[in-house]
Amino acid sequence: MEATSGKIALPGPPRTRADRLREDLAEEILSGRIGPGVRLDEQGLADRYGVSRTPVREALRQLAATGLVEARPHKGVIVTTPSQKALAESFELMAELEAACAALAARRMTAAQRRGLLRIHGRMRSLSEAGDPEDYAALNLDFHDTIWQGCGNATLAQMTADVRRRVGPFRRLQFRLSGRLQRSWEEHDAVVRAIEQGDPAAARLAMQGHLGLVGDASADLVRSKAQGGMVG
Amino acid sequence: MEATSGKIALPGPPRTRADRLREDLAEEILSGRIGPGVRLDEQGLADRYGVSRTPVREALRQLAATGLVEARPHKGVIVTTPSQKALAESFELMAELEAACAALAARRMTAAQRRGLLRIHGRMRSLSEAGDPEDYAALNLDFHDTIWQGCGNATLAQMTADVRRRVGPFRRLQFRLSGRLQRSWEEHDAVVRAIEQGDPAAARLAMQGHLGLVGDASADLVRSKAQGGMVG
DNA sequence: CAGATCAATATTGTCTGTCTATATTGTATG
DNA sequence: CATACAATATAGACAGACAATATTGATCTG
User: Fold this and answer.
1) Last residue of some domain: B49, B79, B109?
2) Interchain CB distance below 8 Å, B66 and A64
């Protein structure tokens, strides 16, 4: 998967330096190596990467357009530090998008895609029983990716993937992993069953339930309480 | 509403020339004055706007990041011409987002927001009966905007507004207006009633029905048939 | 000594000019 | 007539400089 725009699979490697720079920076930010709030100095980056300021500026503008960094005139760009509120909103948005994918997937997934989903789902069962959070998390991405692809709407799939990527670095702060694998697998199971039965509504609800946002008050709570913070 | 990023309300006017240029160009594209497929010459734009190539390039990069234009290395940027498939996908995405907004609004709208919605809804009834598509369309935006704001999730609201704005120039190509006002108002009425009753599921379904994507085969059709075309 | 005012500084925004790389076009040649 | 190659135009990138502005630090005043 490509770094910045999140395009699923591009033919050749990108050509311009600005593109490469943008992807490098995006990767460093999303992996946490650069970290929120850090200021990105134009000349410094130019020196570090051995290019002039021109491609650096273009890369930064593109990153700013994706929301990964924040640029204010004459003050430079900094890696965005989402507020608690903004994070909660993004999680909720992600849940809605994933749920929409699941609902559409229940109607449109091809037989091959369903087989693939079942295969992944089966492997995850073993990992959940064995208690292997590492590999489980890796396959988890495949699981969701299969559903995204199965929704038959590349635009929606792309947007869902993008949102998930953006909140990715902050997921660990909100989820406790240990012991949750079995629970997670059971929630996945509900999604898989709904898709198998071709029941969009059930698939939507199951996915929303999996992402922990069915009727819960957490989002509403954050919404009413947390006001301040930075942009996201 | 601001032009490019779609931010709802900014305090001061933007400062850098690149920002202004980006907004001007976005406005010209969204209003249809520039039109899909048109090539945007850097030097030409620089001359036209009395600036150097630098801010022009940055503006174009930002527009490319939003998907309004498409930039390929050494070939210049052109206004994106979404394929039929991409358009259908965007409409479906918009419907899902609007439906999510409606569902959340049913749970979270404040009393004041509900009053505002009812007020707009009432005025639209008169316009629909009078057969005034012009004013009806104008108020229609307010109607949906009220629901976006009422969902209590600014991130979701922003994304919904952005998607709607992007497909805006193409809506007229797919919708026939005359005689549809009454039907539209009735669909709105279903949404309003669901929100009034605080029924998220009903609100979601009503909104999906309003946007013409409940169980219909149009999207699936386009998906299976239309393959070619340009990016979107 | 605390606080405010203003100058020095650093960084971004922009310009100009130049050079290079690549896509396109046109021409010549087999 | 088709292909290969050269000419051209434009985008990508570089370099240096200046302007605009935010930040910082020093100075001055109460």
Assistant:
1) B79
2) no
Q: How many CB pairs under 8 A join A and B?
A: 86
**Domain with A24 in it:** 17-79
- B143 assigned to some structural domain: yes
Q: What is the pLDDT of residues A152-180, one digit of tens each?
A: 999 999 999 999 988 877 776 445 555 67
Quick check: is A145 in a domain? yes
Distance from CA of B10 to the nearest CA of A (A): 13
- What pTM value is reported for the model? 0.81
The span from the CA of B182 to the CA of B189, in Å, is 10
We report the CATH number of the domain holding residue A126 as 1.20.120.530
Quote the number of domains for chain B. Answer: 2
Residues (pLDDT < 70) of chain A are 1-14, 172-179, 213-232
From the CA of B72, how many Å to the C1' of C25? 19
Nearest-CB residue to B96 (from A65, A100, A152): A100
Q: Which residue is nearest to nucleotide C24 (CA to C1')?
A: B75
Which residues, 6 or more positions from A219, have their beta carbon under 8 angstroms from its beta carbon?
A88, A89, A91, A92, A213, B152, B153
Helix/strand/coil for A78: strand
